[in-house]
Design brief:
By secondary structure, the chain is an alpha/beta fold. The protein has 2 domains: 4-32 and 281-425, Lyase, Ornithine Decarboxylase, Chain A, domain 1 (Beta Barrel); 34-279, TIM Barrel, CATH 3.20.20.10. The protein is 28% helix and 25% strand. The protein is built from 12 helices and 21 strands. It has helices at 18-25, 34-47, 65-73, 83-91, 108-116, 127-139, 176-186, 209-227, 253-264, 277-280, 313-317, 418-422; strands at residues 4-7, 10-13, 16-17, 29-33, 54-58, 77-80, 99-101, 121-124, 144-151, 174-175, 192-198, 234-236, 270-273, 284-296, 299-304, 323-325, 347-352, 361-368, 376-379, 400-405, 408-413. Strands 4, 14, 15, 16, 17, 18, 19, 20 and 21 form a 9-stranded mixed β-sheet that branches. Strand 14 (284-296) and strand 15 form a beta hairpin. The longest helix has 19 residues, at 209-227. It is globular, with a radius of gyration of 23 Å. The mean pLDDT is 96. The structure holds pyridoxal-5'-phosphate. The site of pyridoxal-5'-phosphate has 19 residues, from helix 10.
Length: 426
């Protein structure tokens, strides 16, 4: 599932010992494997090849320029959700035509920036937004392409409430019942063409059925529209493919493709995919150092130098990340990454950070080999929504980011300094 493995009792990213990297960079540090990143991209591209899709990597999952450049060079387009992400995509030399722009609240400024960049599609989330796009495109004498984000009202088991978006009552998109009338009204627009349909039902979607349900509903809508002489040429099926946190819980790219391709292969539709997590998640780890251990009532706490500001997923989504020592000379290398893993002499701990919140934890009630002050721990499957969601809360400079490629590695974002914390303040 990734290129993080133990060699001679030391965790390696590809061929580089994690310990050697953090000796230079300090901790906490995010370390990404370029091979893993590109392998996951290639798997999706390969599995969906019969549909010849445009793959628009979702920048919000992990948006460092070096990551974007590597994916761009591999043939990826980009899914952006803000003017800032559009700026990142353009800095990574993305082709505007291969950019899709989603988001319920695009400002005039953001829309104008995207028009200037001649992006491929605006994912339209409301009637009002569509007419605003038509107006702004008109004032620049341009034509813009819209993809209506349709809310197919499907459910997905095991997707967290905060990241489930395919139900009727979400802020995203428009109800499928209303979509038909919307397309008909939109056909009167002069500068914005609503010729595409967008779905994004949430993340992660841990089975293939919600995609099948959503695409089936979308195709029925496309057929109803065709009968009314409205032609949809592009279907964007969004992101949300699952990644591997425990190692065995998610369908593979090939599984998703096997379920989805039969629905679409005889349709003359341009297909867009917007994977984020399924490309970046397994490509990254967060490395942190044990500061102290202590007892609190019946609990044992392992206090580390990474915190909720570095990785908020455990406390925000109750999400699971496998955590294990970087050096296993005193214990054993893990033979899997499941929450049930036990080893001789392990102990149950809460792994917590230094931030002043009781919600500041990376793991609760977790069995770990005994650790001591100074030991390094790796938090696995942290590439997606890890650094990207980090903040400076508690005036903590953000972590460094490192990219490994084979035997070589480089810092792709230096650790922030105290001066970085106050630089924009007047
Ligand atoms: C977040 C998001 C994605 C990516 O989701 P993943 O689960 O990371 O694949 C794709 N499209 C849209 C519109 C999104 O908001």
């Amino acid at each position: 599932m990734d290129n993080f493995q133990y060699i001679d009792s030391q965790l390696h990213c590809e061929l580089v010992a994690v310990r050697d990297i953090v000796e230079k960079t300090g901790t906490p540090t995010y370390i990404y494997s370029q091979t893993t990143l590109l392998t996951h991209f290639d798997r999706i591209a390969g599995a969906f090849a019969p549909l010849n899709p445009l793959i628009c990597y979702s920048i919000k999952s992990c948006g460092n320029l070096a990551i974007l450049r590597a994916l761009q060079a591999r043939g990826s387009g980009f899914d952006v959700v803000s003017g800032g992400e559009l700026f990142r995509a353009l800095k990574a030399e993305a082709d505007g035509k291969m950019i899709v722009f989603a988001g319920v609240g695009k400002t005039d400024q953001e829309i104008n920036e995207a028009l200037d960049a001649r992006i491929g599609w605006f994912n339209i989330e409301s009637e009002e937004e569509f007419w605003n796009l038509d107006r702004l495109a008109g004032s620049q004498k341009l034509t813009a392409q819209g993809a209506l984000r349709v809310n197919p009202d499907v459910s997905s088991v095991g997707t967290h409430q905060k990241t489930l978006t395919g139900k009727k009552e979400t802020k995203f998109g428009v109800d499928i019942d209303r979509a038909e009338a919307f397309y008909i009204q939109a056909s009167a627009a002069k500068h914005a063409r609503l010729s595409a349909l967008h779905l994004h039902i949430g993340s992660p979607i841990k089975s293939t059925q919600p995609y099948v349900d959503a695409i089936t509903k979308a195709l029925a809508l496309i057929d109803r529209l065709a009968a009314r002489n409205i032609h949809i040429d592009t279907l964007d099926i969004g992101g949300g493919f699952a990644a591997f946190y425990e190692g065995n819980e998610a369908p593979s790219a090939a599984d998703y493709a096997a379920a989805i391709i039969p629905l679409l292969k005889d349709r003359k539709l341009r297909i867009i995919l917007e994977p984020g997590r399924s490309i970046s998640c397994n490509a990254g780890i967060l490395v942190t150092r044990v500061q102290y251990s202590k007892q609190g009532g019946s609990k044992k706490f392992t206090i580390v130098d990474a915190a909720m500001n570095d990785l908020i997923r455990p406390t925000l989504y109750e999400s699971y990340h496998f955590i294990w020592p970087v050096d296993v000379s005193g214990c054993s290398a893990p033979d899997n990454r499941q929450s049930t893993l036990r080893t001789a002499g392990d102990e149950k701990v809460d792994i917590v950070g230094p931030v002043c919140e009781s919600g500041d934890y990376l793991a609760k009630d977790r069995y770990l080999p005994t650790t001591k002050r100074g030991d390094l721990l790796a938090v696995f499957s942290a590439g997606a929504y890890g650094f990207a969601m980090s903040s400076q809360y508690n005036a903590r400079p953000r972590a460094a980011e490192v990219l490994v490629d084979g035997k070589t590695w480089r810092i792709i974002r230096r650790r922030e300094t105290y001066d970085d914390l106050i630089a924009p303040e007047l």
